[in-house]
Structure formats: structure tokens, C-alpha cells
Write a structure and sequence with these properties.
The complex is a heterodimer of chains A (454) and B (308). By secondary structure, chain A is mostly helical. Chain A has helices at residues 5-19, 23-49, 64-88, 98-119, 128-131, 138-170, 177-186, 194-227, 239-266, 274-305, 308-318, 324-343, 350-377, 388-391, 397-420, 432-438. Chain A has a single domain, classed as Formate dehydrogenase/DMSO reductase domain (Formate dehydrogenase/DMSO reductase fold), CATH 1.20.1630. The longest helix of chain A is centred in the middle third of the chain and has 34 residues, at 194-227. Chain B is α+β, with helices and mostly antiparallel strands and 308 residues long. Chain B has 2 domains: 2-48, no CATH class; 60-273, Alpha-Beta Plaits (2-Layer Sandwich), CATH 3.30.70.20. Chain B has helices at 2-16, 60-65, 86-94, 131-135, 161-165, 209-213, 219-223, 248-254, 291-301, 303-307; strands spanning 31-35, 41-45, 72-77, 105-109, 118-122, 141-143, 149-151, 172-173, 202-203, 229-233, 238-240, 245-247, 270-273. In chain B, the strands form 5 sheets. A 5-stranded mixed sheet of chain B has the order 12-11-10-3-13. In chain B, strands 1-2 form a two-stranded antiparallel sheet. A two-stranded antiparallel ribbon of chain B has the order 4-5. The chains are: A mainly alpha (454), B alpha+beta (308). At the A-B interface, helix 5 and helix 6 of A face strand 4, helix 4, helix 5, strand 8 and helix 9 of B.
Chain lengths: 454, 308
């Protein structure tokens, strides 16, 4: 694979990252693994003793696991849409960050479904989903959707890294033979010939065209698991788009945070410039407005219409004794604050935007909790139960530990992937840079002397 | 092999004695002819025969089809209920469910502030448009031609989607390993009998189809001291509470029968007769309750206490 000088420079700069693990890498990897081991113990307890070790009971049948599932799988859909759009519209500044979006897609689509498996009472019968599928069930749609999406995401990611794999293969990296061999096989003999380039581009275009609507469909199907039931707060026609925007929004936040951490970890300031944070900040702002609009629309119609159960739910969500403070947190820090931080020029800075994106991601997780749990606590027939744990859901420590293990495996994957492929895709950089420097009304992304035109 | 043979003999016996199943055990000394698994007619002393309750009469496949020609329906007379709770105990006993697991519950409903509270027994409504069946991803819960909605707990994966979908909170989940009494431990599971319970699966009121096949009423109907529950067949247009047997349509017509939350479009197979001209004051079902149960209804019965 031939690289131009700018690409070569980018590769040489990142070369040590994929050649060896630093002590710091190992520290974090072991830290994540410890969490995962703790999660394994919690899972063992859950399997050995039954789901009674969780806080879920007959009324609130779903809890943290489903919240995590929605959260992670949403990131995945967001990653695919963002990567797809950046690719299709040939967004010049998108080149360096598209790899992170792709990584987020593939990592979340692995971590997310684990949580729905944790929520299933009979682990041992999962094959029933394929042996006795019932096409009417939104759950079956979701199984098909997630499986299809998983295959698409893997291909999409793979297509996007083939060129880079060829670079790694030819670079004589100081790596063990087996890794050399794997790069060799996975690069599929890519040499950068004109026909290879064309075929790869066509495949990538096609996949991007497929992945964007697919992500929207699968995110909607996820929402329909809730929307298709007759429960207050769930049975809503806007749930599909609401989930799509919610997924994109939190995905955008995670992308910003991941970019910031990678930039720090691998000193990639040259590629993840302040401009990237600002641009993604703008996208985040637009999505925040969209999500806020949906949220307002939901709450407002339920409150104004004031049907019996809707009112009960709204009351739960807004009274300080129940979920009031959480609702306030989710909307203040999840919607309003990101808009303000990006809108005000003084705070429109990488660190500010990252901080607010981080808080927003947490708030969006809380928001998912507020979508799931209060609705399940609002039964149509009065509960009249004296068992406190049946009336109100409280997550137990195994659920929290497993949640932690999920986050740990998410971060572990992010660490590991960045040790095997470069975080900034080297072979894709060429087209992007000239635009940056030549656009008259754009500030140069990096100092002029560092940019060598192709 | 041996257990299989015994099971077959028992099943055959049950089949051949189906009409007299409810009768007491025949006195010792009587010989009974039975068909052995090898196809031979054997004669055994009837004292060796034990009518095995909860022994599934039909195969699991038949348990999915339902009883041909039937359309089960239940009518609950709210004017007669005084929360005696005999139905609940009988149901739990029959299905070997622990005390806290109520397939059938009695709620105290007070529709609005000024409305009078009334006792409201609630079991599975066996909806004709069942939200639970629609969402089951593995066909573990299904609708039969006789109107019943049953669960196959050998099939159930425990995703609990049906529980989230049921607007009436009818379904219960085996969160922990259920305690299975010794005498039903080895029974072959069948969706019609619903026992033994299995961890990680969903269960609910099943209208006792195994009893229906033997011409028996569900235990809740039988045990009610006030004849609250009428159970029967819509096709025959007949329902009975064990004492009186009447026309279903006539009963609904005369007493203005209705279905609970009709607006949800679930089309329940359980009808309610409004609590008009009630036989008991509502307090009769409240004052003597044990404290644990009493607490459930405190908010409605003693609202002033709640405020203080």
C-alpha cells in the first residue's frame, strides 16, 4: 500500500500505539477485567439462585438490564448512522473521526445484547428464539433486527479498515508473527489497485446506504418493544423517532467523549482538532433540540390530555418524592445544558463540550431509566401489594455490578481495538485535508506548516 | 421404562375412568381391566389404582388445540363478593402455589373519590385479542380454539414481555427456584395442568382446562361460598356457579354484564355483573382480614389514617 506523505506521517505517528501495550494500557485492561470478573460472579449468583437476586419483580419486570440494553444498542445505531453519513456525504473533517464512530458501532452491538440476555429468565432456552420464532412479536423483530444489524456493522467496519490493514501488513511492524499473519489474511490482498479501490468504494457506499436506514429501522423496532404495549408512557406513536433521535444524541455524546480520551491517551491533537469538537458539538446541539422537542411533546400531551394513567405517570415523573429530581436532572443536564454550552461562544471549547457531553450521556442513561421503570410501576389495575419490592423497583448490587461490568467491557473493547488498528484511519486522510486549508472561511484545522498538500 | 409403563397404565386408567373420576376410590377387591403398554388386557385390583390428579390427559400438542366445540367464559358477580378469599386459597392449593403467589386476586376497586368501593376478583381474562400472546417471541403463550390463553413453561424463555404487555398485571414470574411439593415432583408437565412450576418462567390463571376435561369446575368456582363465579361454555350458552346453571346471555342481559376495561380492545372472556344490590357491605370483607392482607386495602378503607 502506498501512502502519501501526510498519510505516512499519520501512520508513523500512530505506529507505536499498535506495536506495543504500555504499562498504562495494562493497568486499565486489568482494571476492566476485574470488573468483568466481578460481573461474572454476579451472573453466577443470578443463574444459581434465579432472578430473585435482582430487583425486578412481577410489576417492574424489567430494570437496569433493559435500560443498559437500550443505552448501548442506541450507541451502536448512532455510530452506524454517523459513520454512514460522514462517508456518503464525503464530509472532509469527518475522515479522522469515522473510525471511532465505527468502533462504537461494533463494540456497542456486542455489549448491548449481552444485557438483554441477562434479563432473560431462561438462558438455556435462547435457541427457542430461532426454533420457534413467532413473527408477530416485536421481540422477534428485534432479534432479527439486531442480528441483521450486527452482520451489517461487522461488514461496514471491516470494509472501512481493509485499506489500513494493508498498510499495517506492509509496514513491517514490530509485532508477533500471528498478528502479522492476521493482518495479512484480513487485508485480502489489497494493494491499492484501481479496480480494488473501485470495488471497495462501491461496497462501502452500498453498506453505508444500507446501514443508515437499517439503523433507523432497528432503533424503531427497539422502541416498539415498548410502544406496542398498552402501557402509559410507552404506548405512543412518536416512540420510534423518539428512540432514533435519543440514540443519535447519546451516540454523538459518546463519540465526543471517546475522541477526547483518545486524543489525550495517544496525543492525537493534530487529528482530533478543536474544530472536530465544535462541529460535533453543533450536531449535539441540534440533536439536543430535537430530543428536547420530543420529550416536551410527550410530557405535554400526556399532561394536557390528563387521561387517568397518563396523569398518574406524569405525577410520578414530576413529583419530588418520586422521580421528580431525576426528571429534572435528565432534562436539565441532558438537554438544556448541552445546548447552552455549545451555544455560548465562551464555552464552545473542546474541554467544555466534552464535559457536557459526558454529563449528557449519563443524563440520557437516566432518561432511559425514566422511560422504563416508572411506566412499569404504573399498573392499570391497582397494585394493592404489601410487598415493597413488588411495588417499587430498586436495583440490587448484582444488577449494578453487572452494569459496571458492561461499561468495563465497553471500555476494554475500546482500549483493545485501539491497540490493533489505528484510532485515526491513515489511508482515508488524503481527501480531507486540502478542504480544511483551502476553504476561505474556515480556519485551518492545524498549523499550516504541518499540513502537506497531497 | 418401568416408570413409563406405570404412567401409561395410569393414563389409560384415567382415560377409562374419566366419567367417574370424581367418584371415590373403588373398594378393594374389585378387579379393573386395563390396557398395558404391550397391548394386553390386564386385570388389577382396584385398590392399586390411584386417581392421579394433575395427570395430563392430553398431549402437549392437544393442549395447544383446546377442547373441540367449547368456548369457555366466566361471569363474576360483583354483587355477591365479600372478599371471603376462599377462591384464592383453593386456587393456590390446586395449583400448588405458595401463599404469596396469587393467580387469582381480589382487589378493592374504588373508581373515583365519591364512588363506593367494591370487591373485585380478578383472574386471567383469557382475552380474545390477547396482548400477551401477540408479543410472545417463542409461541410459549398461545390462544386456543376453546378461548383459553395458556402458557407452555417448557417453551417459555422468561423474557417477561408478556408480563409487560398484559394491561391487567395478571401474570406472575418464578423469580426463584419454586418449591415443588413431593407429590407432584415427578409429574410430567403439561400446559393444561400448569405444574410443576419452573424457575425463570411465567405462569398465570389457566381456567383449569384439565378439570374441564373431566367435567369439573375450577376450584375458585367450586370453593366460593357465595356463588360469585359462573363458569361455562359460550357455545352452549350456559354458565354455572355450582349451584345454579343459567343462560349466559340471559344473565348478561338481566344483570347488565360488562367486560373490564373494554376500551383497551383486548376482548376479555370474563364478564362482570355490576355491584348493584349488594349482598354484603364492603366492610364484611375487610374487618376480619389478617393484618398483612388488610394493609393492601387500607388506603381505600381507612383514608383518614393514611393522611395522619
Amino acid at each position: 500500500m502506498e501512502l502519501n506523505s501526510y498519510q505516512q506521517q499519520a501512520f508513523d505517528y500512530q505506529r507505536p500505539n499498535i506495536e506495543k501495550f504500555t504499562k498504562r494500557n495494562w493497568f486499565w485492561i486489568i482494571f476492566y477485567l476485574l470488573w468483568i470478573v466481578a460481573g461474572g460472579y454476579a451472573l453466577y449468583l443470578q443463574i444459581a439462585k434465579g432472578h430473585g437476586v435482582t430487583g425486578m419483580r412481577d410489576n417492574v419486570v424489567w430494570g437496569l438490564f433493559i435500560v443498559n440494553f437500550i443505552f448501548f444498542i442506541g450507541l451502536s445505531y448512532a455510530g452506524a448512522i454517523i459513520a454512514g453519513l460522514l462517508h456518503l456525504f464525503k464530509v472532509p473533517w469527518g475522515k479522522p473521526i469515522v473510525r471511532i464512530a465505527q468502533m462504537m458501532t461494533i463494540i456497542s452491538v456486542i455489549v448491548g445484547p449481552i444485557f438483554i440476555l441477562l434479563c432473560v429468565g431462561r438462558f438455556d432456552r435462547l435457541h427457542h428464539l430461532f426454533f420457534y420464532p413467532r413473527i408477530q412479536s416485536p421481540m422477534t423483530w428485534d432479534v432479527m433486527a439486531v442480528v441483521t444489524f450486527f452482520v451489517g456493522a461487522v461488514l461496514f467496519f471491516y470494509m472501512a479498515i481493509i485499506k489500513d490493514l494493508a498498510v499495517y501488513r506492509d509496514a513491517k511492524l514490530k509485532i508477533p508473527k500471528w498478528r502479522q499473519k492476521i493482518y495479512n489474511i484480513l487485508a485480502l490482498g489489497y494493494r491499492g489497485a484501481a479496480s480494488q479501490k473501485r470495488h471497495l468504494l462501491i461496497s462501502q457506499n452500498l453498506l453505508a446506504i444500507i446501514m443508515i436506514p437499517l439503523s433507523i429501522i432497528v432503533a424503531s423496532i427497539l422502541s416498539w418493544i415498548f410502544g406496542m404495549t398498552l402501557r402509559p408512557g410507552w404506548h405512543s406513536t412518536i416512540f420510534g423517532p423518539y428512540f432514533v433521535v435519543g440514540a443519535l444524541y447519546s451516540g454523538c455524546g459518546v463519540l465526543i467523549v471517546a475522541m477526547w480520551f483518545y486524543r489525550r491517551m495517544y496525543k492525537l491533537d493534530k487529528y482530533f482538532t478543536d474544530r472536530h469538537f465544535v462541529y460535533l458539538g453543533y450536531i449535539m446541539l441540534a440533536l439536543a433540540a430535537g430530543y428536547g422537542y420530543f420529550t416536551f411533546s410527550e410530557y405535554f400531551t400526556h399532561w394536557f390530555g390528563s387521561e387517568k394513567w397518563d396523569s398518574e405517570l406524569i405525577h410520578k415523573l414530576f413529583s419530588p418524592g418520586e422521580y421528580g429530581w431525576w426528571t429534572l436532572f435528565a432534562n436539565l443536564f441532558g438537554i438544556l445544558l448541552p445546548i447552552l454550552i455549545v451555544a455560548i461562544p465562551a464555552t464552545r471549547k473542546a474541554n467544555w463540550i466534552t464535559a457536557v457531553a459526558f454529563i449528557m450521556v449519563i443524563a440520557m442513561w437516566v432518561k432511559r431509566y425514566l422511560i422504563i421503570v416508572p411506566t412499569l410501576e404504573t399498573t392499570l389495575v391497582p397494585m394493592q401489594d404489601t410487598r415493597a419490592e413488588y411495588v417499587k423497583y430498586t436495583a440490587t448490587w448484582p444488577e449494578w455490578v453487572l452494569t459496571g461490568a458492561g461499561i468495563a467491557s465497553f471500555l476494554l473493547f475500546f482500549t483493545l481495538v485501539s491497540k490493533y488498528v489505528t484510532v485515526v484511519p491513515v489511508s482515508g486522510l488524503e481527501e480531507a485535508e486540502p478542504h480544511f486549508t483551502h476553504h476561505p472561511h474556515h480556519q485551518p484545522a492545524v498549523k499550516k506548516e504541518e499540513v502537506k498538500p497531497a | 421404562m418401568k416408570t413409563a409403563a406405570v404412567a401409561t397404565i395410569a393414563a389409560t386408567a384415567c382415560g377409562s375412568l374419566a366419567c367417574s373420576c370424581s367418584s371415590k376410590k373403588a373398594p378393594a377387591g374389585d378387579k379393573v381391566k386395563l390396557l398395558s403398554p404391550d397391548g394386553e388386557i390386564v386385570e388389577i385390583d382396584s385398590s392399586y389404582l390411584n386417581h392421579q390428579e394433575h395427570m395430563a390427559i392430553v398431549s402437549k400438542l392437544e393442549a395447544r388445540e383446546g377442547i373441540a366445540g367449547k368456548k369457555f367464559v366466566m361471569v363474576v358477580d360483583l354483587a355477591r363478593c365479600k372478599n371471603a378469599r376462599k377462591c384464592i386459597t383453593a386456587c393456590q392449593k390446586w395449583h400448588y402455589r405458595p401463599e404469596e403467589t396469587e393467580w387469582l386476586t381480589v382487589k378493592l376497586i374504588k373508581d373515583s373519590e365519591k364512588a363506593a368501593p367494591y370487591w373485585f376478583p380478578k383472574q386471567c381474562f383469557h382475552c380474545d385479542n390477547p396482548p400477551c400472546v401477540k408479543v410472545c417471541p417463542v409461541d410459549a403463550t398461545y390462544k386456543r380454539q376453546d378461548g383459553l390463553v395458556l402458557i407452555d413453561n417448557d417453551r417459555c424463555i422468561g423474557c417477561k414481555f408478556c408480563m409487560a404487555a398484559c394491561p391487567y398485571s395478571t401474570r406472575v414470574f418464578n423469580w426463584d427456584e419454586p418449591e415443588v411439593p413431593f407429590d407432584i415432583k415427578d409429574l410430567a408437565y403439561n400446559p393444561e395442568t400448569g405444574i410443576p412450576a419452573k424457575v425463570g418462567t411465567v405462569e398465570k390463571c389457566d381456567f383449569c382446562p384439565d378439570r374441564a376435561r373431566e367435567g369439573l369446575l375450577p376450584p375458585c368456582v367450586e370453593s366460593c361460598p357465595n356463588g360469585v363465579f359462573y363458569f361455562g361454555d359460550e357455545n352452549e350458552d350456559t354458565v354455572t356457579n355450582g349451584e345454579e346453571t343459567i343462560s349466559f346471555t340471559q344473565l348478561i342481559k338481566d344483570r347488565a354484564g360488562y367486560r373490564y376495561m373494554e376500551e383497551l380492545g383486548t376482548k376479555p372472556r370474563v364478564y362482570y355483573l355490576p355491584p348493584k344490590d349488594r349482598q354484603f357491605p364492603v366492610e364484611r370483607g375487610y374487618d376480619d382480614l389478617e393484618p398483612k392482607i388488610k394493609d393492601r386495602f387500607k388506603d381505600i378503607m381507612e383514608p383518614e389514617k393514611k393522611k395522619s
